[in-house]
Every structure is written in C-alpha cells, then in structure tokens.
Specification:
This protein is an alpha+beta fold. It has a single domain, classed as HIT family, subunit A. The protein contains 2 helices and 5 strands. It is globular, with a radius of gyration of 13 Å. The structure holds 2'-deoxyguanosine-5'-monophosphate (DGP). The site of 2'-deoxyguanosine-5'-monophosphate has 13 residues, from strand 2.
C-alpha cells in the first residue's frame, strides 16, 4: 500500500532501526518508545488491523508472536514483557498496518490503561 508508512519501512523507502527481518516479518524500534524496550513487529503483507485479517493470515500472525518472543530473549526482557495489539482508534491504533508492540524493561500494571 503506497501511502502506508509501515509499508514504506518494509520497502526500505523510509528509515527505521530494524532489529530483525525475515520473509514474512520486519521488526524495528518504535519512534516514540513507551518502555526501555519498545519494538514493533509487523507483517510484510499489508493488512490494516486485526479486524481485516482472514483465516489465511493466521500463520503470519502466529509467526509475529514467535518473533516477538525471540526478540524478548534477545533484548533480555523475559522477566516480564507485554505484547500489545491496538485495534481501532478507540484502542489507540494510529498506524493502520497490523503491528504488535513488544514492550519490556519496566513494570507493567494491570488492567492496561
Ligand atoms: P499504534 O498507536 O498501536 O497504531 O502504534 C503505532 C506506533 O508506531 C506508535 O507507537 C509510534 C510508531 N510509529 C509511528 N510512525 C513511526 C515511524 O515512522 N517509525 C517508527 N519507527 N515508528 C513509528
């Protein structure tokens, strides 16, 4: 999708601090970190949000979670980390290309705000 900033990061048309990439996913540091470790894990394929996913996307979504878990080990935040999937403006989604937030390195409270 040409107007999508995350598609531009995937295509390397926009800079980002990429920490991992493979055939289906790209992970990079969030530009506005909310924790000492704040990484976005996204699919190369564009879908706007969880609301737009189809059954065929399930393996990709599962893979993103595996990537997040591996990055949690690499970034040494396995004491306690949070994977967040904001879906829709009411939940704070501001970029409409599916992405997992991987947050760690601080204490998290529950329920989330
Ligand atoms: P959300 O609000 O759940 O849609 O999260 C979008 C996140 O994306 C937000 O934490 C800030 C981050 N972000 C927005 N634009 C850019 C960008 O151009 N580069 C990077 N690295 N992160 C971005």
């Amino acid at each position: 999708m040409t107007s999508c900033i995350f598609c531009k990061i995937v295509a390397k048309e926009m800079p980002a601090k990429i920490v991992y990439e493979d055939d289906t996913s790209v992970a990079f540091l969030d530009i506005n970190p909310q924790a000492p470790v704040h990484i976005l894990v996204i699919p190369r394929k564009h879908f706007a949000s969880a609301e737009e996913t189809e059954e065929a996307d399930a393996p990709v979504i599962g893979h993103l979670h595996r990537v997040a878990a591996k990055l949690a080990q690499e970034f040494k935040i396995t004491d306690g980390y949070r994977i967040v999937l904001n879906t829709g403006r009411g939940a704070g989604q501001s970029v409409f290309h599916f992405h997992l937030h991987l947050l760690g390195g601080r204490i998290f409270h529950w329920p989330a705000g």
